[in-house]
């Protein structure tokens, strides 16, 4: 009769071998070269502009000379209000 321990060891060796091959395959795929494989890629030109010069001061317009002046006199229809403290 066949020894049951030998059969189980053969299965274990097969599983471990398959795992080693799978890990080696993944490592080989991940450690490939970093170069691009496209041969017909167009050349890319990058232009960097220097914007380090101080920007011009913003233009501030002076108020118009004929602008109406705001009314600074109080309105005659409204009287000033005062608040008196409420005593207890």
Number of helices: 1
Question: Kindly, what is the distance between the CA atoms of the first and last residues, rounded to a whole number of angstroms?
Answer: 112 Å
Order of helices and strands: H
Task: Give the biggest beta sheet.
Answer: none
Low-confidence stretches: none
Morphology call:
elongated
- List how many beta strands DSSP finds: 0
Rg measurement, Å: 44 Å
- Structure classification: mainly alpha
State mean pLDDT (0 to 100 scale). 74
Kindly estimate the percentage of residues that lie in beta strands according to DSSP: under 5%
Helix content: 25-40%
Could you list some keywords that capture this structure?
88 residues; mainly alpha; elongated
Describe the model:
With 88 residues, the chain is an all-alpha fold. Helix content is 31%, strand content 0%. It has one helix and no strands. It has one helix spanning 4-30. It is elongated. The chain starts with a helix and ends in a 58-residue tail after the last helix.
In short:
The chain is an all-alpha fold and 88 residues long. It has one helix spanning 4-30. It is elongated.
How do the helices and strands line up, and which of them pair or pack?
Layout: H1 4-30
